[in-house]
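From: lab user (bench 3)
To: helpdesk
Subject: output format question, protein + nickel (II) ion

Hello, I'm new to running complex predictions and I'm not sure whether the block I got back is the full result or only part of it. Here's what I submitted:
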Amino acid sequence: MSLGTVKHKADQAYITGLRREFHQYPELSGQEERTASRVCEELQKLGITDIRKQIAGHGVVAVFGGGAGPTVALRADMDALPIAEKTDVPFKSTRDGIMHACGHDSHTAMLLGAAKLLKEAEQHIPGKVVLIFQPAEENAPIGGARPMIEAGALEDPRPDAVFGLHVWPDLPVGQVGVKSGYLMGASDRFSIRIQGKGGHASMPHETVDAALVAVQIAQVLQTIVSRNVNPMEAGVITIGKIEAGSRYNVIADEAVMEGTVRSFHPDVRDLIEKRFAEVVEHVARSMGAQAEITYRRGYPVLNNDETAAGIVRSAVAEVLGAQALPQIEAALTAEDFAVYLEHFPGAFFWLGCGFEDKSKNFPLHHPAFLIDERVLPIGAELLAETALQFFNQKGSNV
Ligand code: NI
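Helpdesk reply: Thanks, we reran it on our side. This is the complete output you should expect:
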């Protein structure tokens, strides 16, 4: 069965208007009340009646399509960041210190645009479409995906595949990054509190210098990746913060270190966590200090299903052409979408949103981050086409 293509049919004005509105009214993780209520209003206007609200906070799940065939889910995230916007667009954030600096405004608008396309094609849909508007993506390690799944939001109907995207400023508009297997990393977070013994700078023999212990720990931790992890595997330990001491002539009593661990392979994740505790405890003890470790696992590795990644590639080829699929390397940034992929097959892809004028491109989470809005109809068409390609491949035998 062929469902045709959605090529160049997305309603650009509709999606752009929504994106700008969401951008003006950003909401932090867990507080997406206005966004979720606007999403529900738009879904109703599209004629979608099965709308489930306030799932795990402000999550929304909408279901349509009448066929008895398989179910495909498409996911967008809705939350913004505690960042003060530094752009001069007319639709700049109206909320002090809050900004859509990760493009989730565009994700939500694009999924509504895809919903419009798919709803118009509903009579041709052999199964069901589930739209997931997820809260709290930025709220690692809890996130929004796991609470929504645990609330049963994806049980009836249960998706046979889940797809999602993220705008990606490193790729220009019109390019898409997708690969099967690992696309994004597992992200864990730690803090270490080192208890030494303070004293006068001139009398180190009567003290345990917590600052020196911290420096030693920082160095030895780097040997985990260089000496314990298989060099063919990826691992990163970054200490982003070290605090110790109060004055130039006082030996620090206490030091606090914070950082993050990134990995792809679960064995590497386990190995680093185990070695981390050994290194920190033993180095501290060898210098006469005590170390207290808090180590929290965050989002898991994002592992794209091979068939699902192929479905995304087919959709990209249909909407943009095969030249829109550059070879990409996985990245150790983390994404809550990975949690869906622990429960359902599916794929996540990076949607190029970079301006031709490269001076206008800033990284995700930057106060000047903006997308080239030409990406908006492309994203909507790709999400809709991905669903259609899914039905073409999975629905042909129903
Ligand atoms: Ni994001």
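A quick orientation on your result: The longest strand covers residues 161-172. Let us know if anything else is unclear.
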